[in-house]
Each structure stands twice: as C-alpha cells, then as structure tokens.
C-alpha cells in the first residue's frame, strides 16, 4: 500500500538556533531517503520551500481567489513529504517515526487512493 508521509514543523526553527541546523536535517533526510530507496520502499518525496513562498488558490461560491502564502495560519507548516510503498500502516508508522525533525513537529501518515 502507498502512503504519503507529510512533514509538519515550525519552519522558524531553521532560522534560529532553537533546533537542529538545516544542514543537519538535510543530511539526515538524505540518509533516510537513501536507505528507503535501497530497500525499494521510497517512491518519491521532496522538501518544500517556506510557507511564505506559497500561493493558495481558493474556490468559494464558484469563484477562484488567489492568496499569498498558505491558506491557514498555523504554528507548523508543511515542509516536505515522502511517498512510500509498504505492506501496511504499521510499517508506514515505523518509518514516520524515523523522519528527522528540527524540534517538535508532526508527520501525518495518509494512505493514497488506490487506482482501479
């Protein structure tokens, strides 16, 4: 089954000394991604630029509106994702627990819609 592992963190931690450095996190992500790729689990993934670079397209009453930045103000922002294929939710959760974070944060584990 395929799962998206969505990484939510306070991106301000990367701008201060409050958390692990960006270089440390990138190194840790590359190591995990390399291991998962070698095992044939990793299907894709990528880090995202900061939330202030986002543009949101919102539809309301049949009209589309553009907003600079993310739609919702939040303490944690979507910072990246992994797309994996594993046998079950327990295997996906085990990998999610290994994802490096700068400080506190969350990894949302969401199954993909199966085609067909």
Quick recap:
With 116 residues, the protein is of the alpha+beta class. 22% of the residues lie in helices and 36% in strands. It has a single domain (2-111), classed as Dimeric alpha+beta barrel (Alpha-Beta Plaits), CATH 3.30.70.
Structure overview:
- By secondary structure, the chain is an alpha+beta fold.
- The protein has a single domain, classed as Dimeric alpha+beta barrel (Alpha-Beta Plaits), CATH 3.30.70.
- It is built from 2 helices and 6 strands; from the N terminus they run βαββββαβ.
- The strands form 2 sheets. Strands 2-5-1-6 form a 4-stranded antiparallel β-sheet.
- It starts with a strand and ends in a 5-residue tail after the last strand.
Core attributes:
single chain, alpha+beta, 116 residues, 2 helices, Alpha-Beta Plaits
Helical percent range?
Answer: 10-25%
The largest sheet is: 4 strands, antiparallel
Unreliable stretches covering 5 or more consecutive residues: none
Widest beta sheet: strand line-up: 2-5-1-6
**How would the global form be characterised?**
flat
Structural class given helices, strands, pairing?
A: alpha+beta
What is the rounded Rg? Answer: 16 Å
Overall mean confidence score, pLDDT: 89
CATH architecture title: 2-Layer Sandwich
Secondary structure blueprint with pairings:
Elements (H helix, E strand, L loop, with lengths): L1 E8 L12 H17 L3 E6 L7 E6 L2 E6 L8 E9 L3 H8 L8 E7 L5
